[in-house]
Amino acid sequence: MSKLLKRALKNSLFPAILMIAGKVLGIFLTSAIYGLTIEVGNELNGIFSTQIYFEDKAVTLFVNSFSDLSMFLFLAIPTAYFIFKTAIFQSTVGNPKTIVKVTKFNILQWITKDDTTFLKIFIWCAFLWVASSIVVINVLQDSTYTWVGILAGSFAFLCGVGAVKTFEIESNNVYPDNKRYY
Amino acid sequence: MKENKVKKTLALVLEPIALGLLALLFIIPAITVVNLQPITKKIKDLNVLGVTNSSGLKVNIIGGSHLIFLNERIDSNEDIYTYKTKLVKREADSYSKPILEIVNDKDEDVNLEIYGGTSIPTNSDIGIIIEEQRYRLQEPNGNLLTQKITLRPKETYVIYLYIESFSDVRFEEDFELNIKDVQ
After folding, report:
1. Counting Cβ atoms within 10 Å, is residue B54 exposed (0-12), middle (13-18) or buried (19+)?
2. Which of A9, A16, A57 sits opposite B40 (nearest CB)?
3. I want to staple B118 with a disulfide (CB 3.0 to 4.6 A). Which of A76, A154, B160, B173 is the partner?
4. Are residues B13 and B50 in the same domain?
5. Are residues B111 and B139 in the same domain?
6. What gap in Å lies between CA A70 and CA A19, rounded to an integer?
7. Helices A57-94 & A118-140, crossing angle to 10 degrees?
8. CA B88/CA B152 separation, integer angstroms
9. In CATH, what number is assigned to the domain containing residue B124?
């Protein structure tokens, strides 16, 4: 089995767990905070037999929207962090001014070790795209607020652009462009 | 030498399994999240055998298969029952099908307002038949009509949906029928 595949499997486990945890926690926390009556049933209606019921349509929409948002944030925050961290790390290599700024903001530990690979960013980004697709589909089916879908779609798009940029920079390290001396 | 061969064979076997596992790591959370979508219990109870409101009016879908009326279903929102079906393309002719069974379990008369039709005129005459009496709901030009019907106590009524097309209809159309309990 190739090393790349092994690492891909290892890197995919955590976001997969986070995606489900984000949704479940979103449902139960929203219900707990707003004191909503929640019922868990098990009727065969899909692949899984567990269903979460709410009595009112508006409440269902509210809880679904916030659980979608929570699932999305659970994936979006680490993805954005990885992209940001890699961008800073790569910037410090070519630009000493960034080191000064990084020191000023006291985030020097971010650039001391480059443990964020493009593969990791790519996998997290892929999970983010899957999550945002689910949110957008929910918006189209009127089961999530529109603003949640817009937020998720736009952020996923931006993260996609960020991941591509990271890939470009990393590939430039392997195959430098003509302007650079090597 | 032999060990190397075993390792190579194992790697060959494990590689597709690992790829499948990787795909599953994306698919399983997505399916789980979709299945965890909260649903409204009132709505979930519909489309099984029928719907009942607190006043004792019961509206059951008859179902069965028909060449023209497809995907029948019934929903309820407070005192309005909505029956939906897809009318497929058809030749100029008259078609009908028993669609709903209404049971008035109350000890008094129940007044219903029945209206509905297709969103785009299909040049068809659409209506319902209750106890051999025709009630027109949509004229061929698309005009919608509301019918008022009184149900006697402890009586069961079967509603037939009829559709008369005067020319061939070459497209599918969604039909919606609303039954409102007027108290």
Report:
1. exposed
2. A57
3. B173
4. no
5. yes
6. 9
7. 150
8. 34
9. 2.60.120
Of A1, A16, A24, the CB nearest to B36: A24
Alpha-carbon distance of B67 to B85, in angstroms, equals 12
B13 and B90 fall within a common domain: no
Judge: A52–B38 Cβ closer than 8 Å, yes or no. Answer: yes
User: How far does B34 lie from chain A, in Å, by closest CA?
Assistant: 7
ipTM above 0.90, yes or no: no
Residues B168, B143 share a domain: yes
Task: Indicate the SS3 state at residue B122.
Answer: coil
Domain assignment of residue B129, given as a range: 41-182
Is the same domain home to B28 and B84? Answer: no
Would the pTM of this model clear 0.90, i.e. be above it? no
Residues B26 and B49 in one domain: no
Q: The domain containing residue A95 runs over which residues?
A: 3-27+57-174
Chain B residues whose C-beta is within 8 A of a chain A C-beta are: 11, 14-15, 18-19, 21-22, 25-26, 28-44
Query: How many beta-carbon pairs under 8 angstroms link A with B?
Result: 93
Q: pLDDT for B117-149, tens place per residue?
A: 888 887 888 999 988 889 999 988 888 889 998
CA distances from B89 to A115, B68, B71, B171, B174 (A): 61, 7, 14, 5, 11
Q: Are A148 and A65 in contact (CB under 8 A)?
A: yes
Return the percentage of chain A with pLDDT > 90, whole number. Answer: 38
**Chain B: residue whose CA lies nearest to A41:** B41
